[in-house]
């Protein structure tokens, strides 16, 4: 299983690097991004669904974000990244509350927005440079950042689950 995962990861990385080296990401790579964006979004929702509503305010340590705040942060960040790619003003949307139902609804809304933006993206948008909070990045780098950022915070959310004795849902790629 680990070998299969490593091979898939290597194949995706190689495809992305080849696309960046060529300066253009064509339809097959955009389709690959779309597939994995949907999988990552669905997987994040699955992790969110595992925590009981009563524990959405739970923190591993006082300095950390709560479980609900981790998930809200993922959704907000992704809406920011994809709004930059779309050339739209970033949204300052928030869930109605930090309870389970509202946070999951907000995650789903974010996922739908990101999928819509990516479905309409062009190779030119991915090759173009954009100003973001941390400097300047190409559209491709913004996509890579969104995937990496989501993985980072979702993994933290999974540790919250484990500390509550809940085995996180099986990883999906």
SSE layout:
Elements: H1 2-22, H2 27-50, H3 67-86, H4 100-119, H5 123-127, E1 129-132, E2 135-138, H6 139-163
Antiparallel strand pairs: 1-2
Architecture overview:
The chain is mainly alpha-helical and 173 residues long. The protein has one domain (2-163): Four Helix Bundle (Hemerythrin (Met), subunit A) (Up-down Bundle). 66% of the residues lie in helices and 5% in strands. It is built from six helices and two strands, in the order H-H-H-H-H-E-E-H. The protein has helices spanning 2-22, 27-50, 67-86, 100-119, 123-127, 139-163, and strands at 129-132, 135-138. Strands 1-2 form a two-stranded antiparallel sheet. Helix 2 packs parallel to helix 6 and helix 3 (67-86) runs antiparallel to helix 6 (139-163).
Brief descriptors of the model:
Four Helix Bundle (Hemerythrin (Met), subunit A); 66% helix; globular; mainly alpha; 5% strand; two-stranded antiparallel sheet; 173 residues
Basic shape:
globular
CATH architecture: Up-down Bundle
CATH C-level class is: Mainly Alpha
Helical segment count: 6
- Computed over alpha carbons, the radius of gyration is 17 Å
Amino-to-carboxy terminus distance: 12 Å
What structural class results from the helix and strand content?
mainly alpha
CATH superfamily: dinb family like domain
Rounded mean pLDDT is 89
Largest sheet: 2 strands, antiparallel
The strands making up the biggest β-sheet line up spatially as 1-2
Oligomer: single chain
SSE sequence, one letter per element: HHHHHEEH
Low-confidence stretches: 17-25
What is the number of beta strands?
2
Percentage beta strand: under 5%
Number of domains: 1
What name is given to the CATH topology?
Answer: Four Helix Bundle (Hemerythrin (Met), subunit A)
* Fraction of residues in H or I helices: 55-70%
